[in-house]
Amino acid sequence: MREALFIxxxxxxxxxxxxxxxxxxxxxxxxxISITDDLAYAKTFYPKSNTTKYLNGLAAGFHQSIYKNRKExxxxxxxxxxxxxxxxxxxxxxxxxxxxxxxxxxxxxxxLSAKYDSTFLRAILGNDYVNMTNENIAKxxxxxxxxxxxxxxxFLMIASNNIKVELLTFVMGIFLSIGTIYELMFNGIMxxxxxxxxxxxxxxxxxxxxxxxxxxxxxxxxxxxGGAGLILGxxxxxxxxxxxxxxxxxxxxxxxKIGIGLIPIFITAAFIESFLTRRTEMPIWLSGSILLSSLxxxxxYVIVYPAYLNRKLTPKNLNLDEPTY
Length: 325
Fold this sequence. Notes:
The protein is mostly helical. Helix content is 80%, strand content 0%. It has two domains: 3-68, no CATH class; 92-307, no CATH class. It has helices at residues 3-19, 25-45, 50-67, 72-91, 93-116, 120-125, 127-139, 151-171, 178-200, 204-237, 244-276, 284-313. It is elongated. Keywords: Membrane, Transmembrane, Transmembrane helix.
């Protein structure tokens, strides 16, 4: 879009924002996000123009209005979860999709490898784990591993390990996305072979109801963390109109925000695994409800709501669908 047309289509809205800023926190946040979107567009296509300078000043004014009073922390917290993080998901939806596809492909590789190579399963899961699970199956308690140890201690260990895996998956993206793809491969192959093992024992449905009780949130978060890693790596490979350093800084900010946003989800998954998954006698309707609720939340918050929010906040005459990186 030519700059003159861009200005013509949006001048009145900018003037309205400039004359009277909304007092309602939600309206103020929506206006701020709209202006920053316009600013990002202008920086991309008209980086040295007066329009960009004007929008930068207007955005700065909104920023001061949002953070000038004692409600700063509360407003910032709400804005992050209600607007900022979902819009980051939408902005980088392609990287999230690529991460999902990588994970699915690697999971299928793990499944097929375990099916056609009898030694593969033990190489991936370890002899001790396979032997222990075989013993549990013989005892009639195939998922007894989840009942071992104290629930509270198990919760702390699982939560800290999952967050560590998430951060590693994200940070490894600095190696031109290859590190992140490796982490997705490792986790995907392990998941595929692990799931095949139970299906081969005739425990497919039961394993889904038990393992995916916590695995829905846990593995979805790893995939999203993989998307954050791809954002980081792609910012170096494909900086577009930015310098590589600026592109990397912008990607690191977005990726870190995704990482922070995933922490409560990992904690919830760890809680479910530690306190609920061990209840293997749980009624099917209850375990199924928890599983489907977790899946519905991920689909809504990462896919549906961000798309809705983008349509609501983006002016119809602008095409800002293209991700920055």
